[in-house]
Description:
Blueprint lengths: L1 H13 L16 H15 L1 H4 L10 H18 L7 H5 L3 H13 L15 H17 L11 H7 L21 H10 L13 H30 L3 H23 L11 H8 L13 H9 L4 H15 L3 H73 L3 H88 L6 H57 L4 H46 L2 H24 L4
Helix pairs in contact: 1-6, 2-4, 2-6, 11-14, 17-18
Amino acid sequence: MEEVDKILIHSLRQAGTAVPPEVQSVRDLTPELVVEAAVRCLRAVNPTLGAPLSPLLPPGISARFRLASDLAAACQELGFGGDVGYQTFLYSSEHDTRRLLLFLVEKLPRDESESGTEPPGKSGALLRAIGARIREQLGMPWVPPLCRTPRLQRLQGTSCLHPFTTCPLVLPQSGGPPELQEYYGGAAPPVPAQPPLCTRTPPALLETHMAQLSACHDWEAEWGGPGLASRLPPQEYAGRKRLRARLRALEPLRQACPPRPPGPPLDPAWLQEAFGAGGAGGALPKGSRFTRTQHLTHEQDPQILLQQIQAAAETQHPSKGAEEDAGARQASEEAALEQTLAQLDAAIEGCRGEMRDAQLSLTQAEAEVQQGRLALGGREDALRLKAQAIELLPDAQSNMAKLQLVVEASGRRIVSLAGQWERHRGPLLAQYRHLRALRDSAQLESSRRLSEIRTLHERSRSAADEARRKEELYKTLVAELEALPRDISRAVYTQRILEIVGNIRKQKEEISKILVDTRALQKEINSLVGKLERTFSVTDELLFKDAKRDEVVRKAYKYLAALHENCAQLIRTIEDTGTIQREIRDLEEQIEAETSSKPPASLERILSDCRALREENAALAARPRR
């Protein structure tokens, strides 16, 4: 039983029972461990039965009795056929405890280790279906659109591929001036409507997202290097970076731009001289890509750039009066530009109103034109009919005859066409019915094969689950094998197993011999009883015939009846003696079992619990008196 106890205790530990390492057999289990193991197993087998029960044995005696009684009722409801009660958990013997725990361990679900890997219910089924569909699509090779079967068209689509063509997108952004937020909220078109073609929307979104990710990555890389070294806040560092870029862009313009003469705010001649090919300053220097990259990449200190710009301004405008004149001209230019901007805004608003009115008028005109076209089409048809009728009026009789002939010819043609249709309709209808029967049979075959495929999938999934469970069990057993001491060889266990098997075989042979002897003895007894009954019947009949005439035969008949009755009583006495002897042997075995299970300890525990229960009853009885 040691191996059985080890396997049982290992199963209880897997079910969640905190069995100490020093407990190696059922004999070492305390009532607390028995109760905890029973509750854990009940919760694993049937949560509705085990949820209300506590795995901890309460300190109070009455509470212990209630918990043990509830556990016994739950075990009986689960299907335990043995005798179970509160004494099974509190004062049980080794045999009863082993029998109960073996029953509970056998009821544990086999796939308990895998039940937590997937969520139960509909979500788990949905995840499994999604995984199966993804595996099916990944295992399917790509096929060109024109070569795809209907099944591949359902999986990979029917449309052709489109080139990866992108376009800029305007995405709403948080922050900024109110005008920009108003534009994003009302006037800005939605993102799907911005690309000219619907096929360019996914590439544009991908490109925009990639640009945002690369910008974020570049900012993180730059802020992680020179940004942290500058010891400035992120906003101030970004502002200084923009200032440096603006100054680098303005420096060549300031150097190439000649001094603006006094005059109108924006003189076209001065603009052509400043930015054209024949100005005093000449055209802006056309640098190569390398020079522009060099100018942009080699950053300078903004303070140095400001000093250089101020020095250039002082060299170009040394006089204070010239600076004042320049400031006045700049103010006048700004005022003129603001006035022009206001006029342009007013003109734009007026144009927008005119456009709305024109659009409304155009819509109304288009509706009127459409209505007129419909009315004109109806009138043209009526006019055409009337014109044809007028043409036929001068020779009405001949025209009527001609129309009658045309009608009769049309009727004959319709009849001939109907006959032709019937001649063509019969084979086509037969072919249609044949094709429909073929389609129905193909659908039935496909549904049958689909059900077979689903069954195979279920079998493969269950086989995979079983293989995974056995793999985990194999790993657990390997870990336990490595934890076992190495000084005991496998041959010892093999020899013990062979000895146990030999003993079991010998016991089976002895039991078979005893059964054979018992059956033979029972047959002999039955034959003797039958022979005795037949002999008694014959003797009784013979003596009963002569008993009426002879007094001696009458006495012999009485003695025969008494002998038969005494023999029957003797047989019943022997049978009762055998039954009493069997009961005596059973009682002796129970006495030996109770003696081996240390009854004094159990008796002492029962007596201590009885005393504690009396004390609790006395305390409860004394409580109302207070």
